[in-house]
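[stage:ingest] chain + small molecule (nicotinamide-adenine-dinucleotide)
[stage:ingest] validated
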Amino acid sequence: MAVATRPAGEESPAPKKVTVLGSTGSIGSSTLDLIGRNPESFVVEALTANRRVDELVRQALAVRPRIAVVADEGAYQDLRAGLSGSGIEVAAGKKALVEAAQRPVDIVMAAIVGAAGLEPTMAAAKRGYTVALANKESLVCAGDLMMREVERSGGVLLPVDSEHNAIFQVLELDRIDQVEKIFLTASGGPFRTFSREQMVGVSPEQAVAHPNWSMGAKISIDSATMMNKGLELIEAVHLFKVSQDRIEILVHPQSVVHSLVAYEDGSVLAQMGTPDMRTPISYALAWPHRMRTPSQRLDLAEIAQLTFERPDSKRFPALTLAREALKTGGGAPTILNASNEVAVQAFLEGKLGFLDITRVVEETLGRIAVHQISSIADVHHLDVEARRVAGEFIAGVAA
Ligand code: NAD
Ligand code: MG
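[stage:predict] done
[stage:export] tokens:
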């Protein structure tokens, strides 16, 4: 068989219409960086942010979306003033955020952090749009519902998380039954070699300083506790419909091999690259094609050595908590996610010690009876309950 070539006439397809949810964040601004470098390939429909109006205004004036939305209604007047005379529509509030996600587009970049991204991401999925998913928490807290909605609507979910994007690039979806194992790589974070005793007094500044990746505060803390890998395990189970016993975590401090898929014939396929989220973001934006990115090129001879080790769940109990939550099923991952969000926030605010983050998650999981999740209302209810219970426990720890 001849090697497949691109069909003729596809050299300059019509620009893709894109909405970026969470445009002011780390993933959001990397997405706009790529869009800005390829103005002939993309037009922006909507940009959304929580409350960083100055940055949202700057972005909107640069990429000229049809609408800019802030989730925080208190920021509305500033946004309106900042974009007055620009011809760009403005709106504020949660409802406006969901409406922005529903505007007809070719692709929605879901890059809000946390469960706050669930409703708008779900709204885009329900419409059957192609969703580039960075917001892993929405899959963790409502994975079954989200995947069901994507299937029902005929939409597409493209993984942006570097590990899942790597798997997506090397996974032969029609041969999923011939996959023996998926290896999710983890950098191990800034405390990879720390003992539990050394982790006791670490500060938010130390925990946010990731050795390889530059990311938002929440995911940086998740990387330091390795809860990020726990969330990613749950994300992978939903995205690829593979049971958790076929997914292994592999610590790889250089962050070059972004993940691997092992097939029954003994072949192991991996995707590699320098740690720059613009590569996986570009893969989702250009899918099913590829596009050029300015990411630094991989120089393996310069790196010289790639190393791998097994994760240590004694020092990083988040991995076990995530595996157990998956096993329990129902709303357990929702509780895990919500309590982790509350604990990370408390740690960032100096109200909680680093090792207490996973303690809060474990306690919260133990204090709430898990039941089945059959609607977004169920998810919301459990999320609120878990935040309340986690908050109470934190108040007790801090007292
Ligand atoms: P970030 O904190 O830098 O940005 C978050 C964005 O979400 C901002 O635009 C913010 O305004 C918006 N936001 C926050 N709270 C909101 C709310 N309540 N309502 C509406 N909008 C809100 O986060 P990030 O690092 O860009 O991460 C975004 C998502 O992508 C997360 O789910 C993260 O796990 C995932 N992710 C990030 C990276 C990375 O390299 N940064 C890599 C893989 C996956
Ligand atoms: Mg990741």
